[in-house]
Amino acid sequence: MSADHPPGLDLDRLRALLDRDRPGLVNGPLTGRLIEGGRSNLTYLLSDGTSKWVVRRPPLGHVLATAHDMKREHRVISALHPTEVPVPRPVLLCEEEEVLGAPFYLMDFVEGTPYRTAGQLAAIGAERTRGAVLSLVDTLVELHAVNPAEVNLADFGRPEGFLDRQLRRWAKQLDASRNRDLAGIDELHSALGRALPASPAPTVVHGDYRLDNVLIGTDDTIRAVLDWEMSTLGDPLTDLGLLVMYSTPLGLPGSPVSTTAEAPGHPSAQELIERYATRSGRDVSAVSWYTAFAWFKLAVILEGIHYRYTQGKTVGGGFDRIGELVPVFIDHGLTTLQEG
Q1: DSSP codes of every residue in 285-326
Q2: Chain centroid offset of residue 263 CA
């Protein structure tokens, strides 16, 4: 297919659907291109020459569970759009597989930049970096302030036993990719299980909240929070712990996995924790547990990537060094838990 007709995006069928269900929305020939990035689902930029939209669909050759993500993602951004949480305006959900070969949804395109590296932040300067990261905390507070029942998300997840289920889920994921000894990982998992905190009242949880999953405007405010595929109802402090983890410098120059925390002007993890606590009113005294859990979760994810690399199932460069990072994440997790 050509660049304007990428795989997985049948523009003729999509145009016919939009003319049927959203007459007048499209005012010219449609073009589309794949947007790089994202965890698993495919994202395309769609345009009629005047307006722009974004299409989200499961990967080619998807499985049914991933198809279900489309309905969940569309549901959560539809629920949050009228709130203070910045999300793109949802336009349409299509569960008819004959249009694109899988369920998908369409939303408005939002202008903004996803900052993925410390180098990108360094280019905008320390003051703007500080403003963008503090906005990230403030937006997380807004998300966790939404009453799920008031936006019809009361049944969006199972908050009871959330942390225990999360811990078991990631331990199971680890077992699926074990092919070497990893010093400390079982110790970290056991210590997390012994120190399981009592969760606060459940909120909508993003599940992968970090700087490169939001679009930052030229005024350094967050224009949109993206990638809701892991969202659910659960413990809000899991989002904070992940954000704190990503705000901790790894101190590994040239690493294929980096945080943006090395950027000049990036607020310290402690400042982010205090800002969240002040603005949300939540007790964050157990934040070390949530941060240690985030280190554990990322160690498991990286080990899974390393496992696929050893089997020759990864594509692209940098995977040869992923394996050496896993012990670093385990050590960070153990240290964080002990210091807490």
Answers
A1: TTHHHHHHHHHHHHHHHHHHHHHHHHTT---SSSGGGHHHHH
A2: 20
